[in-house]
Amino acid sequence: MNAAAAPLELRDLHVAFGGNRVLEGVDLTFGTGFNGLIGPNGAGKTTIFNVISGYVTPSQGDVFLAGEDLAGRSQSARVGAGIGRTFQAPRLILDATVMENALLGLQQSYRWGHLAELLRLPWSRAEERQARGRCMDMLERFGLAEMAHEDADSLPLGSQKIVEVARALVAEPRVVLLDEPAAGLGADDVTVLLRGLRGIAAESDLCMIIIEHDLQLVTSLCPHIAVLDFGRIISEGGPDDVTHDPAVIEAYLGHGFAARLEAESLGVEMTDSETPAGAE
Fold it and tell me: Are 63 and 9 within one domain?
């Protein structure tokens, strides 16, 4: 590991499915803390996550985790190297408990195999106790401790999504990819989710990369945001830089958003009827 290297770096990524070019020359560097990745539907955001986590092999380009080239590494090897991941729709084992789902996040770190577990050897039991303790601590952070022994399918969708976030974080990855973690969550669930994420970010050097359509959430959480459109990065920078960028307004936010910004700068409050059609 190169201590001076960024937690995650993408260099000249190209991906094409058949004749459809999904990513074209994507260069991105992600630092510790919160990083936002936004853009229209179909821009290639989830494809970037799939390349990082090994689900998609780029036709050109490289992914570096703390300076280490991940080329040729399998999905499981990337998890072992320190990449965690969630998905737009939670991928839980619905007939397993919340605790059992959380424990799956630690399977790469188990020292002893299934035989030792079946034989209930002392060192295996100690490892299991430690793993359960780590999972319970993580579930507690996200307000899920009381649900630890309930089946995942008994939880509402919002809680299922938060369980998946907890599972991705329990192994203490170096980088975690959060694909629309707040989508479909109510206000209370969003508050719980953000409180847990902010607490972890304050205590660690974790690099969190968030795809999210809730612009207010992204701009309040992420000091650095990249905008993707038609497979290319069209803007990068702080929230104000990105939201005032004409290219971003044209491709993603709409001219109604620009009108709102102008009205706010003049101290004018626009009503819904006065908001231009493109503002939403």
Answer: yes
